[in-house]
Amino acid sequence: MRILTTWQGLEADDRGASVAMGNFDGLHLGHQSVIAEAATAGAPLGVVTFEPHPREVFAPDAPPFRLMNRAARAHRLRKLGVDRLYELPFTRELSAMTPEAFVDAVLVAGLGVSHVVVGADFHFGKGRAGAAADLQAFGAAKGFGVTVAKLIEAEGEEISSTAIRAALSDGRPRDAARMLGHWHRIEGRVLHGEKRGRGLGFPTANISVDGLHLPRFGVYAVKADVLTGPHAGSYGGAASLGVRPMFDGTVPNLETFLFDFDGDLYGAELSVALVDYLRPEMSFDGLDGLIAQLNTDCARARAILTAL
To answer: Which residues does the annotation mark as catalytic?
Structure first.
């Protein structure tokens, strides 16, 4: 998959794709259906999205809401068979384009799209003035096809990033996974921490959750993929998401203990899938109580993962 961060001056091979267009935060089943609609014979499969997310531009002080960072979205799109990822830089200049100006400059002159697929709730252009029906009219006039994909439901409930955030906030990762069509993952580079876990017999790989919507704080059974480095592979584990109240922490992060693993992961890219919520964050009177609880957490997590 090629990742392009502009719509201007593209090589011929990067033009003419059949594209799905949207923010695609979380890449849930609804997003996947839009992308599947864009897969047509004879044209590269493309995704047009925006970076940063428009909400980060218009509401920079709002609480973090993203389900995926940029790298995690790209990893998932590659798995979905996307050939071209167009990460258009979302600036105030881009947002000031009228719907027709956006179509003319970006979709026609820039990307030279052959077909565009959007969700039924898609809006574009200054003030979100353009709707899916407007895009269909522009496509008919300017020489590219447009398909409006229907919204998807799961068990009678409309699938949305908002509903997925609510499930994660409640500590319901399996409900989130049902709507996503995959486990919710947190991805990032393994950072140096305070190394307390190593001293307790539970060395952890720490990754930042900065900028992401935070699931319920606590301990989870997880599946972890080491994406880079000599230890690349898949592992079961238990992870703690939160601020470590026993040690007076204030900055949330994700600390993952990999089962049956021995090695150095610093600097490696790690993808952690939340499978089940085990318990909330807790404080203990001493380290013996903490270690006993960690042993219980790991035993429960192993049992859950074995049953998958």
So the answer is: 255
